Amino acid sequence: MRGLYLVTDRALCGPRPLEEVVLMALHGGAACVQLREKNLATRAFLEEAQRIKALMAPFPAILIINDRIDVALAVGADGVHIGQNDMPVDIARRLMGPRALIGLSVEKWEDVEKARTMNVDYLGVSPIFETPTKTDTKGHWGLEGLRRIRAATGLPLVAIGGLHAANAADAVRAGADSIAVISAICSAPDPLEASQELHRIIESALRKRKN
Asked: What is the structure's pLDDT at 115?
């Protein structure tokens, strides 16, 4: 898990269809799209996921479904992202199979410690900064918290929460392998331009960290 990671929010896309925003993000360099729908009926979510998967086909990006393992299995998504109150990781792994990607949100240090014994592929460090799109969390990690997690695990880290072009590089330097954004792309006047800028910043910071 590396690079620009788009988490979708239809409500923040304004007049643009979600599919249009996702397509612009992909053209802009998004490496992963997490389809997140907390209030959509199952059939509508499934149909939306099918459309997103189809438009992603020409791109190397991966499709992650938030929470809904049934939808992920139905459309053949690359994996799922689950939170602390969602389906337990061991059951999710049994259902999804060994090749699927499973991401787990960590909101406090206890979550990080427990994740050491879990069969997950990456940790979603959430949130890095306070953000109106994540209102059910237990505070925020900050860059120092991100550094602490980086020192404690070899798993890829996806940083999310209050991240944008002005602070994405700081999060990479603190240990993030991937930068997840919602409003920085969905609410941008030009999602393509916003994605290109974020992609450029993230990849540059990753290269410098490797060197």
From this structure: 97
Told to judge if 114 belongs to the known catalytic residues of this protein, a careful annotator would answer: no
Amino acid 14 reads: G
185-14-199 Cα angle (round to 5): 10
Q: How far is residue 79 CA from its own chain's centroid?
A: 11
Answer whether residue 92 shows pLDDT above 60: yes
- Please confirm, yes or no, whether 38 is among the known catalytic residues: no
The catalytic residue among 36, 68, 93, 150 is 36
CA distance 97 to 34: 19
From 68, 93, 126, 134, the catalytic residue = 134
pLDDT number for residue 130: 83
Would you call 43 a catalytic residue per the annotation?
no
| Cα distance between residue 197 and residue 37, in whole Å | 26
Return d(Cα 69, Cα 59) in angstroms, integer: 23
Exactly one of 105, 126, 178, 195 is catalytic; name it.
105
pLDDT, tens only, 125-136: 999 998 765 555
Instruction: Tell me the percentage of the chain whose pLDDT exceeds 90.
Output: 93
**3-state SS class at 103:** strand
Q: Which residues pair with 106 in a beta bridge?
A: 125
**pLDDT tens-digit series, residues 135-173:** 555 689 999 999 999 999 999 999 999 999 999 999 999
